[in-house]
Design brief:
16 helices, FAD/NAD(P)-binding domain, 20 strands, binds flavin-adenine dinucleotide, Polyamine Oxidase, Chain A, domain 2, about 475 residues
Amino acid sequence: MTSSADLLVLGAGPAGLAAAWRASRRGLAVTVLERAPAVGGLAGSFEVAGVRVDHGSHRLHPATPPTILADLRGLLGDDLQTRRRSGRLRLAGRWVDFPLRAGELAGTLPAPLLARVAAEAVAQPLRRARTDSYAATLRRGLGPTLYEALYAPYAEKLWGLPGDRISAEQARRRVTADTPWKLASRVLRIRRNRGQGRVFYYPRRGYGQISEALADTAVAAGARIALGTAVEEVHPGPESVRVVAAGEEFHAGQVFSTLPLPALAAMTNPGPPAAAVEAARQLRFRAMVLVYLVCRDGRWTTYDAHYLPGPETPVTRISEPANYRDSADDPDDRSVLCLEIPCDVGDEVWRADDATLRELADEALAITGLPPVRAVEVAVRRLPRVYPVYEVGFERRLDDLDRWAASLPRITTFGRLGLFAHDNTHHAMVMAYDAVDALRPDGLDRTAWAAARSRFAAHVVED
Ligand SMILES: Cc1cc2nc3c(=O)[nH]c(=O)nc-3n(C[C@H](O)[C@H](O)[C@H](O)COP(=O)(O)OP(=O)(O)OC[C@H]3O[C@@H](n4cnc5c(N)ncnc54)[C@H](O)[C@@H]3O)c2cc1C
């Protein structure tokens, strides 16, 4: 079967859906092709034991631009709740509130550790170390003690590399408070604003409600969303692009791809030149196993998330989705926890069976002094591509691939994996809005898109 559209959108995560909605509203005939049986991508939700859960801890950050927030409020109404953050972080063998509070840090952390951090903070302007890797940048900015206690082990767990093999770009994109002074001013600012930095937005029915609302409104505006339709081939041409997905042919004047950039390179014909093929091969993604434990004793804790940066367990974070919202739909007699375990596709964690993952989860709770879960039910999801790995030198490889993608006629790539960025949902939506705004009747306005791309380069990921 063959179908045609003005715009084909590849992928129904927040980026693809926001683009589909905005383009349909402009009167374009839009078709979205999505491999999964449901919308939302990494930002989707699903049910475990009757409780809506996410793919790891997800919150809509207060940094969301006002236009996007206003659109989401319009779509979700009162279901988009403003919530107070209530996380905890394991630091030097103790639990501290996260986001950090100055007073609590001073009162909880071991005095020798605090003294070293303070001495290194005072010496910070004098440090003349290199800044050519994540480790070097943060050692210089934060001081060796804070770096080694918090950022070094967390980085190795998240991205599978020691800090000196991670690009300095990672520090810029991910660590918003990269000197002790910025860290302190951030902590104090939160206090002065009476908790402004401590709130987030979250939909009553799980984070995926954002994507579901975007999908519904896109469909209402005329878009077609084809689920269970994996894109297999992309054939760019001078007049239109031909896409083969789930055995069906689609033709469109323009294609927006939010698929992982290396995956797009592998399915495009003619393919990229040798240098870009090699670049695509070398760009790595970190995978993640998500372990959901059903706690049959009601709520497990009152916290929304526990952050585990230390090397004592491979688990990086444990969230309890029901604590992210206030919903009468959530049962009183059970709760579901989600443990995030970054790994590589095919490694021991990736291949572990449910019983082994359950043991690993129990061990993480025991080691960190968290309450045990007397659950018997375990659900597991394996995500092959969650974090783009910014290994030292990745910039050149990405640039090779990106230049090839930008040269494709009638195809524009964006979204978190489409641009190999760590970005948040609001960043992915900003990209979608900008891409549609750059569309002209005769194609994409390359100048407007280039300006948008340089704005995206300044995105800083919020935790
Ligand atoms: C553990 C974790 C925690 C996060 N926490 C937050 C947070 O707190 N706040 C926040 O704002 N963001 C958070 N994020 C980021 C957020 O999930 C992403 O920014 C967002 O999902 C990106 O949207 P996207 O549409 O660009 O990509 P995706 O959500 O990845 O969507 C891409 C879509 O393409 C589809 N696809 C892939 N290949 C094909 C194919 N061949 N054919 C058809 N379809 C295909 C996928 O199935 C997917 O639906 C987190 C991410 C992770 C992994």
